[in-house]
Amino acid sequence: MKKSASIQGSAILVSLGISKWNARKFDSVATREIESAHGAQDAGKFSKKLLAKKDAVTDEPNEYGALMSILTQARTDHYHNSLAWGNQGWRLLPVGNYDEYMDCQRKHLRAFSSALPKLVRAYPALRLAAPAALGTLFNERDYPAPDAIEERFAINYEREPLPVSGESIVDELAAPQVAEVRAEYAAKLHANIDEATRAAMDDARKRVGKVVREIAATMNKTKGQAGFGFKDSKVGNVKRVVEAMRRMNVTNDDEFDGMLDRIDRAFGDVDPQTLRDDKKERASVAKTADEIVADMGAIFGGAK
Prior knowledge:
Largest sheet: 4 strands, antiparallel
Radius of gyration: 25 Å
Structural class: alpha+beta
Strand order of the largest sheet: 4-5-1-6
Strand content: 5-15%
Number of domains: 2
């Protein structure tokens, strides 16, 4: 692994803040009625869905559902395209994945800017339709006023450089103290960055291990067993994760790159339909996946 100072020019920190109205409300009266009907006590909580996410006629996402989907995908892509970094909401973005991350960010900001005004315009009608779905559970007070719905939604991306030891925190100290404090701060900072960098690469390895173990488990299922069937994305996601982690190998770990190459060779050109139709091909892929999982070991999130 590179020293902490060396990654300060090869990665930045990013964060994503999302505000949204989930259109759900705990109903204490309904909860008591349900518990009474079943002779239960403290058995659960009844939460109302205040707005539908799909159009009742077309079954397509309505304005509320479309906006919520954009926010969900923004968070999914934020996590997919960055690595774990501490516990303060920041994540590590290696510069190798910067363009991909920024393309996703711009796409989601454009989509959000387009979808929010549509929800604001549609919201009064969506709220008027709610009593038909909720019946006697409908309560006008559960809903934001039409002129307040826009402020319930926000999306905010932030970027920062990796922290470096600077002058400002010690400028006001007397000269004999400066060198000692600066050295202590620098040592602590470098140790923190080293630890966070290790955690970031652990995150990358575990994400790779997870998709390979999932494909291995699926390929080892026989026809008739639960989990035998799978979507094309099960296979495609392996390649997607491998490509992303290759761009985010912030420490230039050759062993990690070697494992990514091996996974790419094993699954990169696999056809999902062939795996459904050809028992021998499926068994061959299962065997290869099992071998990779075995060689990955605990550092890729497997059993110790």
